[in-house]
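ok so I'm stuck.
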Amino acid sequence: MTSKLKLTLACGDYEIIRPLKEGAVSPDGIELNILTGSDSATRHWRFLRGQYDVAECSGSSYLVARDRDMPFRALPVFLHRRFRHGFVFINTGKGIEKPSDLIGRKVGVKFYQVSAILWLRGILEEHYGVPHKSIEWFAELDEDIAFDPPADLKLQRLEDSKSVEKMLADGELDALLHPDIIEPIVNKDPKVGRLFPNYKAEEVRYYQKTDIFPIMHFMGLKRELVEQHPWVVANLYQAFEQSKAMAMKRIRNPRIIPLAWYQEAWDEQEALLGPDPWEYGLTPRNRKNLETMVGYSHAQGLISRNIPLDELFLDVSQGRKRGTFRA
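replied:
not stuck anymore, here's the structure
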């Protein structure tokens, strides 16, 4: 029997990769060892140090890696997207009532490079008139890839004993941009709130204005893998497409999810975002999404130029009207 190419894939434990993980979908000629145990920050850091063949990777950090010609490439597969207006947290005693109140304030981040924070800085600047250089930034963790901040960027790295969540609750920070729902919000700490209390309505307005459902993560590959086995690119991409199609068909069944109004939520999402908000590939909508992300990265001093998308992502086409997976 012909042996398959053995690859290690690290990613989040998403429904849209369940068919791949469980073996219902298998990329042609490839045997995947799929790891889903790491948190995002750890997985991204380890991939960018060569520990996985293929991995879901921070979009922001991948842009920095490609700007420096590090040995990685990416498929236009986007396992994680998220609207971010609900992830701007404030200390409720600091008189912050609107976005412009953040100007001149002390604002924490887990680390500066993370995709969620890249998007939030860009959105606050472009849509709410809050220049990212008008804020004093405090970062808790080291970056996925070390970088030299622009001379006029106010960015401090906190000592290991400090936590940005605790600093926000204690009033040492005025606000916090974070990729996750923070503990003070979960615990309903009255000292901590959201900049946008009705964040869903704000996110809907943002989407209606921009047609952007922000992409957070790309699917990274080692460059040597692509060079040695170029056929892997299309085969992996097709498998991710098949897995997503199979998963979306499964979870269309409202009995799958234990939520009383799941069908209504699904219908609401489809009416606003369309039938496939998680679409892969360099479609027109995804191009706008990604070009916005690249533009924010360049404007914020993380990358040295606006990198063209066709340079950032591998070509997954198999010729006109060939190799198209039909759900």
